[in-house]
């Protein structure tokens, strides 16, 4: 029986509330990682079209740590161009958008789960996904927003009817996914060929995204005179790559079920130990799931078979790309340094789990919902502790970033020539990743350079950072006097 509209509405808002309650500290996180390179390369005062023309092929135009020119992700960097135009350099707005996008993705997943599972189990499983501690990068890292968008598009594809106008909407979604992440085209090619072989259903339009992507990728590379033979993604030996496939699948499954509690927020990138007991957890969980699916394979409905194959091809495709392109040459530890890989994997693997759980009896689903709910509660505590610890560690840098962005937005003409701090931050923190870009060992790469998108200022104006976390113009650099004159003392 279909759920009542009021129940559906309350369940959706409850899930959104859970996301906000768990991850609200990420609103106060700072720009970090690869996003610092984007800030450095995108001038603060250029238009959307100028930003888009530079970022559309960012892996081929970047000067900050150039790498992976074979990658072509136009939707990803179109989204970032929009965010630059809409949110400027304020980290709060970027973080708020990312959190909303993540919440929408979780609601779309819940809508899928509700079709195949009982209401309590569907909601508790969506809640476990929403608060999962291994998703910290997906929620808090600005550079990963398009990866979350990829999952949202995948869920929207599943929810869209495949008949009538819905067939062409699905084609549009598939094309967007292919242009967002290179997995998209291969996913729909494999899924369509499976449907054609097993069900004699020919979805020719879903075969098109991959060749369209490849043609667009080739044309862009030719226009930018990029050779795919140079600077390709690193690859290990064939044996190492094949061996990496099951290890990656099992390790990430284990992390998703049983993540570690936070010990040191500064060591976030190594908080998921590799090759420990979680590898065994992943192996047991995967074996049980596929054994149960094999036993119940004849009882699966056509819709469940479609969802199962979509989840398998998505999860397997992700594992293959990451294992061959990243993990084989760099080791399993590389995955622990980039926890958003766990989000990418689980966004498809959870569809496999949903089909497996759908074959449980109603009573068994109710008991399973309680078990999943307890597990979700544990994840909630770990996730909020992790996000809060990161917020507290980043708070000084966050205040500095927001204040700089605010001063520039309020004083665009005075700020056009650049600015310099009267009381600069000590050392390169939190910009140690940009140390190789220093023009001299004594130079401090500070946030104004990231705000402006250039390394040198022609006639910078001096500003003082006052006790109320606000900047004021201060040519004399007599900080107390300048702050008092502008009423910037707390």
Description of the molecule:
The chain is mainly alpha-helical. The chain has helices at residues 5-23, 34-41, 48-55, 58-61, 74-87, 91-116, 119-131, 136-140, 145-159, 165-180, 183-199, 209-223, 238-257, 277-295, 302-330, 333-336, 340-358, 362-410, 412-415, 447-452, 479-485; strands at 419-421, 461-465, 471-473. It has 2 domains: 5-393, no CATH class; 395-485, no CATH class. It is 65% helix and 2% strand. The protein has a 3-stranded mixed sheet. A hairpin with a 5-residue loop joins strand 2 (461-465) and strand 3. Helix 11 packs antiparallel against helix 12 (209-223). 42% of the residues are buried.
Mean pLDDT: 80
Please state the CA-atom Rg, rounded to the nearest Å: 24 Å
Per the principal axes of the C-alpha atoms, what is the gross shape? Answer: globular
- Figure out the total of helices: 21
Number of domains: 2
| Percent strand | under 5%
The portion of residues assigned to helices is: 55-70%
- Give me the side-by-side strand order of the main sheet: 1-2-3
The tally of beta strands, per DSSP, is: 3
Low-confidence stretches: 230-236, 426-446
Largest sheet: 3 strands, mixed
Measured distance between first and last alpha carbons: 59 Å
Q: Give helix and strand order, one letter per element, not per position.
A: HHHHHHHHHHHHHHHHHHHEHEEH
Helix and strand composition category:
mainly alpha
